[in-house]
Amino acid sequence: MSHTTVIPASTYAGYPAIMTPHQLDTMRARAQRDPDGFWLEQARRVYWHRKPTQAFTGSFEGDVSIRWFEDGQLNVSVCCIDRYLTDRGDQVALISHREGRQASEKITYSMLHERVCRLANALTHLGVEKGQRVAICLPMVSEAVVAMLACARIGAVHVVLFGGFSAEGIAERLVDSGTVAVITANVARRGAKLVPFKETIDEALRKAGSASSVHSVLVVSTSDDPVLMLPGRDYNYHDFVDEFEADFVPVLMNAEDPLFLLYTSGSTGKPKAIVHACGGYIVWAAYTMGMVYTHQPGDVLWCTADVAWITGHTSVVYGPLANGGTTMISDSLPTHPYPGRWWDLVDQYKVTMLFTAPTAVRTMMAEGDEVVKKRDLRSLRLLGVAGEPISPDAWQWYHDVVGNKRCPVVDTWWQTETAGIVLGPMPGVQALKPGSATMPLPGVEMTLIDQQGGAVTGPGEGALCISRSWPGQARTIWGDHERFRQTYFTMAPGRYFTGDGAKRDSDGYYWITGRMDDVINIAGHRLGTAEVEEVLAEDHRIVESAAVGVPHPVKGQGLVVFVIPRKDAAGEVTEQALSRLIASQLGRYAAPEAVYLVPDLPRTRSGKIVRRLLRKIAEGQIENFGDLSALNDMAIVKMLCDRVWGQM
Ligand code: ATP
Ligand code: MG
C-alpha cells in the first residue's frame, strides 16, 4: 500500500463501460437513501411470476433472520432459460470444451431448455420432490450446468460437491445435507490423471450406510471407462434421461424457498453448508455479474472456477444465464498438456471476459512472458480474479502481459456467504489500484470495526463487516442456525462479520489484509498475513508464500513464513535474505522467527492456502489437525512436518 499504483479509468477509453462515474455515484446515493426501493428496482432484472412488493424483511438482531422479496414467486430456471427462448433461443448459452475431444459442445438456449426439462422429468420420475436435496458431483461437463437448472426447475435443492473430495468428505456431506439422489460421472480426466468419480460415490455411500437417504444415482459416461452399476439404484444418465419428454412445467417457488446448499472451501475449519434462497440469490447473481461482467452481444465469459465453488455457481451458471449471456466451461488445466494451454483456448473460443483465481495467475506467470506473448489474445476485453488476495505484482503481470495493458483487471472480493461480488470495480468506470478489490458495489454498506468495537471512519483498518443485508446474503447454515448466528453476528452485534480484515485508504478503496484469525500481533504491532506475502511477491524469484503467527513467550506472537521459490531460482534464495527483506520492508518487529523454503503449500480443493494447517505445523501441534476433508493433497502435510521438525 506504500507505493500504490493508480490506473485511471480513462486508460481504457475504448472499454464499453455501462455507465459514467457520475451515474455510478448517483446509483450509490440512491441505494443508500432508499435501499428497499433500490432493491425492488434491481429485482426487475429477473423474471417473476408474482412480482415482490417487499425488499428486506429480516433482522440482524436477536435470532437473526434474512428474508428478501418474501411475497414474490418465481422459478430460477425460467429466469435463466425460458425468458430468453423467444428472443435468443438460437444463441449459444453454454460452450463446453473438453480436453481430448475434437468438437466442443455449443448449447443454445433452446437446447438447454430441452435438456433441463428432460432431466426435470427424469428426477421427478425417480421420486425427487420439491425441497429435497440432490447432490451434483461432476467434472466440468455440460450435464453439471443442466443438473443445477433441472433441480431449480423442480424445486429441489442442489448441493454441488467437488469431485476430488475423498469418499469420507463426500459421505459426510451427503449425510449432513440429507441428499436423496446423486448425479455423478463414471470418471474424469484431470490433466494426465484419471479421477474415479463413481467409485468414490460408491465408497461414500457404503461408508454412510443407513445414515444416507440416497435412493438413486445417475451416472454420466464421460468416457468408455466401465464402472460398476447397482441395478435399481444406478442409472446411466443419457440412456435414462434422454427418453423423457423435453418439456416440464416449472414448479412455482416462493422467493425464500432454498435454491441450493453449498459447502464453504474449508480454509479456516470445518466446512459449513451455506443456504441460499431462490429470489434473493438470482437477483443478486444478475445484479453483481451484470454490473461487473456485463454481457454484450457476442461476448463469451470464461470463468475457470469449478462449479463446486460459489464462483462456479454465480459466475459460471446463474449470473451469465440470468443475464442472457454465453458462458464457457472447460475441464482443461492452465499448463497441461503444455504451458499456455489456456491462452490457446482463449483464442480458439474468442473469450472476451476471463475470470480466474490468483493461484492460476501465479502459475501462468511462473512460466514466463514468452508463453503469453506468442499467442493471440486480442479477443479479451476484461480480466478478473477472485478467491484470494492477488499481489500487486501478479495483478500487474496479468494486466500488462495478458491484457497487454488494454483490459481492466477486476479483483473482486466475495464469499460463499455473500453469493456474489461485494467488493469490486466497475470496469472502465473506476480507477484501479493493483492489489485492492476497490469498493463495495452500490447497495452494499461496508463497515470496518476497530479493536474497541467501534466503526472506523475515513481511512483505517479493522474487521470487514457489512451493516445492512443484501439480497444474496446467506440465509443460514444448513441445520445449524445457531452456528450461523454465532459465526457471523456476534463479533460486531447488528452487523454481518465476514471473518476477514481490511484497510481502507483515503480514496475509500479496500485492501484485504487476510483472515482475522490470521492477523498476527507481534509485541503490539498488528500485521496482516497478506502484507507479509505482498512483500515477498515483489521478488520475482518467489512463486508464492504464506505467513502465519505462532505463540511467542516475549512478543505474544511471532511470524513464521513458508516460501515457494521458483524452480530455477532455488539456489539463489536464502531464508536469511528473505527474513531481512521482510524486516526492512515492514519494520524490525516483523522479522520472522523462521522462514521455510518449501516446494508447495497445503491447499483447499479450490486452490486456497490452508493457513490454519501451516500455523499448527509451525507451532508443532502436529497430532491433531482437525477436519482435513477439504485438503487437496495429504502428502504435503508430512512433507512440511518433516521440513519443520525433521524426519519423523
Ligand atoms: P471457509 O469459510 O470454510 O474457511 P473459505 O472462506 O476459503 O472457506 P470461500 O467462501 O470460498 O471459502 O472463500 C471466501 C474467502 O476467500 C473470503 O472470506 C476471503 O478470505 C477470500 N477472498 C475471496 N476473494 C478475495 C479477494 N478478491 N481478495 C482477497 N481475499 C479474497
Ligand atoms: Mg469463509
Per-chain topology:
Layout: H1 21-33, H2 35-42, E1 73-74, H3 76-80, H4 85-88, E2 92-97, E3 105-108, H5 109-125, E4 133-137, H6 142-154, E5 157-160, H7 167-177, E6 179-185, E7 188-190, E8 193-195, H8 197-208, E9 216-220, E10 234-236, H9 237-241, E11 253-254, E12 258-263, E13 273-277, H10 278-292, E14 300-303, H11 310-322, E15 326-330, H12 341-348, E16 353-356, H13 358-365, H14 369-373, E17 382-386, H15 392-402, E18 409-412, E19 446-449, E20 460-466, E21 476-477, H16 481-489, E22 496-504, E23 510-515, E24 520-522, E25 525-527, H17 529-537, E26 542-552, E27 556-565, H18 575-586, E28 594-597, H19 611-619, H20 635-645
Parallel strand pairs: 2-15, 4-5, 4-6, 5-12, 6-9, 9-10, 14-15, 14-16, 16-17, 17-18, 27-28
Antiparallel strand pairs: 1-11, 2-3, 7-8, 12-13, 13-21, 19-20, 20-22, 22-23, 24-25, 26-27
This protein binds adenosine-5'-triphosphate and magnesium ion.
Adenosine-5'-triphosphate binds next to strand 18, strand 22 and strand 23.
